């Protein structure tokens, strides 16, 4: 993602045309992040817009020498999604670990190479969206965006143990679903 | 590839989102609306800040300008009975040119020489006006004081013999500017001595040398302004009529009853704050305040942060039941009312407007757990901050009311207020987006 520094400068100064150009450039990257964290496309677009607002408001703090622009906007987008989630989330979320999941998880291993061939990104996004909201966020942060359990526990206000449990739960759920789909497919 | 994490990471790393997510103009329009809203918010904050600064500046101006003006008028009243120093002796004569006792003024500039100069009309002692440069270190501070000193016989003026008159006064360098006093011969009749044929005898005043020690002078001598000795207007005109203090500060506490709406729930709220009251004249005053206001109820119709969940788990050994309940108890606002007051006697009428800002949505959570092993049912209630997103953050309202002063400090007030800005930004089905009215009854305490 190569952006003209003058475009960033103009967008930072409030030039609406420059902001429009920046929005068009950032939209796919931001949508890719939001689709993993949100339940549907409408929610994702709403989150993208909120994230873009934060990007515009903080453009003056962006330092080109330190971090690529794409990584910077990804990080802002993730923070925005997590902030929104914290604000919206129920004050306590009940998660029940059922025996059903454990049974599937314990069954024969999946051939990941075959899974790789048969599953595309959209398919995986759909699977992620089926996870419980908190588990979805934790798994995304840990497995895909590379945050540590310690960072996740800080971001989402939970213990590291709970974060690990969510990741484990997500793996079990996803493997179960992938297995089922591969069998069906 | 070994596990699901690798699969996920690889898939997303190799993904080109540009192909999957098509840009639409409507997305940009939504984003643009957010940007414009943010800009509006910033503009509003800026003007609110400017308004607050102006209000503070106005208050400061009223406070700082009013106080010195009061001091000045007091000073002018006080000056009427004082005698001021200009460095020379003068009198404002009456029509026949004779200085009268009350008109005479004696001036002093506070030099090292100290001489008391007095006149006594009864003895027809005329003080020469040509004594520029003559310095006395003490003045008569008031008419009354001067009258007392003048009733004596010029205790500090030596009317000596001719020999004594010839004596030089070493402290005076220039004889031409020596103070002199012209007195008639002792044998002359006191009343008509200035018409006497005998030549007047001019003698120098005896200057009593004094050491250079600080002399405690009356404070009035050091008044920086040279004010006229004779009032240009009657004193009575300068005395302001008695009225209340110009500025007063106090606290207010009021209970409020809110208009019932579909989402209001409870109706009783409160408002507590501080105010400054500036009296413009006998009847009118301006009041600026800052108060916290609690509006009860107002659970957001589409607020997803208000769950009521029940979870009951059955085990082989019994059951465990947990219940979570969350409800919006009310909204806390910070309000800045500005009003004009009209007073007559103990009664006052007021009217004005208020700008408010939402700073807290007060929610209450209630967690109840019951277990076949855990004994009694346990309920924990807790106040938590709620989501303010569904609510309008700023509002404007107008109010009118009355006040009755119970005493100098305490007064009762009642007020009817209508808030024009709706409470909610977005409404649920069947919820009307109207303003909100309330009536208040409370107490004001003026601290000073």
What does this 3D model show about the protein?
The complex is a heterodimer of chains A (185) and B (448). Chain A has 185 residues and is an all-alpha fold. Chain A has 10 helices and no strands. The longest helix of chain A has 25 residues, at 160-184. Mean pLDDT of chain A is 83; it is low at 94-106. The longest helix of chain B has 55 residues, at 25-79. The radius of gyration of chain B is 42 Å and the shape is elongated. In chain B, 19% of the residues are buried. The chains are: A mainly alpha (185), B alpha+beta (448). Chain A binds chain B through residues 14, 16, 19-20, 23-24, 27-29, 31-32, 35-36, 45-46, 48-50, 52-53, 56-57, 87-92, 94, 96, 110, 112-113, 115-116, 119-122, 124, 143-144, 171, 174-175, 178, and chain B through 1-12, 15, 17-18, 20-21, 23, 27-28, 30-32, 34-35, 38-39, 304-305, 307, 309, 311, 313, 322, 324, 326, 365, 367, 384, 387, 389.
């Amino acid at each position: 993602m190569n952006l003209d520094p003058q475009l960033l400068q103009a967008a930072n100064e409030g030039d609406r045309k420059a902001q429009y150009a920046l929005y068009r450039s950032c939209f796919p990257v931001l949508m890719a992040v939001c689709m993993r964290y949100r339940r549907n496309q409408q929610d994702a677009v709403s989150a993208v817009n909120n994230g873009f607002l934060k990007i515009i408001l903080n453009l003056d703090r962006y330092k080109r020498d330190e971090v690529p622009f794409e990584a910077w906007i990804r990080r802002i987008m993730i923070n925005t999604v997590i902030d929104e989630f914290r604000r919206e989330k129920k004050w306590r979320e009940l998660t029940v670990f059922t025996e059903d999941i454990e049974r599937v998880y314990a069954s024969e291993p999946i051939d990941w190479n075959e899974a790789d061939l048969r599953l595309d990104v959209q398919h995986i996004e759909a699977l992620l969206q089926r996870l419980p909201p908190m588990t979805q966020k934790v798994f995304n942060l840990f497995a895909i965006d590379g945050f540590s359990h310690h960072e996740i526990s800080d971001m989402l206000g939970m213990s590291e143990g709970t974060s690990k449990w969510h990741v484990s739960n997500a793996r079990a759920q996803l493997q179960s679903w992938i297995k089922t789909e591969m069998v069906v497919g | 590839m070994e596990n699901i994490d690798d699969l996920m990471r690889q898939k997303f790393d190799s993904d080109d989102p540009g192909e999957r997510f098509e840009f639409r103009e409507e997305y940009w329009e939504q984003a643009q609306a957010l940007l414009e809203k943010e800009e509006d918010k910033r503009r509003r904050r800026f003007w609110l800040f400017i308004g607050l600064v102006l209000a503070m500046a106005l208050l400061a101006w009223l406070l700082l300008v009013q106080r010195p003006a009061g001091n000045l008028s007091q000073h002018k009243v006080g000056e009427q009975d004082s005698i001021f120093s200009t460095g020379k002796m003068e009198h404002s004569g009456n029509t026949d040119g004779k200085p009268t006792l009350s008109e005479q003024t004696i001036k002093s500039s506070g030099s090292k020489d100290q001489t008391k100069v007095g006149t006594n009309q009864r003895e027809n002692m005329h003080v020469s006006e040509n004594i520029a440069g003559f310095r006395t270190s003490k003045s008569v501070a008031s008419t009354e004081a001067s009258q007392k000193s003048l009733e004596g016989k010029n205790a500090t003026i030596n009317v000596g013999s001719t020999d004594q008159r010839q004596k030089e006064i070493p402290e005076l360098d220039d004889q031409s500017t020596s103070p002199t006093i012209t007195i008639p011969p002792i044998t002359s009749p006191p009343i008509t001595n200035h018409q006497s044929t005998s030549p007047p005898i001019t003698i120098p005043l005896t200057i009593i040398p004094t050491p250079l020690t600080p002399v405690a002078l009356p404070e009035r001598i050091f008044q920086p302004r040279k004010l006229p000795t004779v009032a240009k207007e009657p004193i009575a005109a300068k005395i302001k009529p008695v009225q209340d203090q110009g500025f007063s500060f106090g606290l207010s506490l009021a209970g409020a009853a809110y208009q019932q709406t579909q989402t209001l729930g409870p109706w009783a709220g409160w408002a507590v704050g501080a105010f400054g009251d500036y009296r413009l004249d006998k009847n009118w005053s301006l009041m600026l305040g800052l108060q916290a206001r609690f509006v009860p109820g107002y659970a957001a119709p589409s607020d997803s942060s208000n769950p009521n969940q029940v979870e009951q788990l059955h085990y082989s050994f019994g059951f465990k039941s947990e219940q979570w309940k969350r409800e919006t108890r009310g909204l806390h606002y910070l309000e800045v009312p500005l009003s004009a007051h009209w007073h007559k006697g103990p009664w006052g009428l007021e009217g004005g407007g208020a700008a408010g800002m939402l700073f807290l949505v007060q929610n209450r959570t209630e967690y109840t757990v019951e277990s076949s092993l855990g004994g009694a049912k346990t309920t924990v209630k807790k106040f938590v901050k709620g989501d303010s997103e569904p609510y309008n953050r700023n509002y404007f309202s107008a109010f009118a009311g009355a006040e009755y002063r119970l005493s100098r400090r305490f007064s009762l007030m009642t007020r009817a207020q209508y808030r024009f800005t709706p409470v909610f930004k977005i409404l649920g089905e069947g919820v009307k987006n109207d303003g909100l009215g309330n009536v208040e009854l409370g107490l004001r305490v003026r601290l000073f």
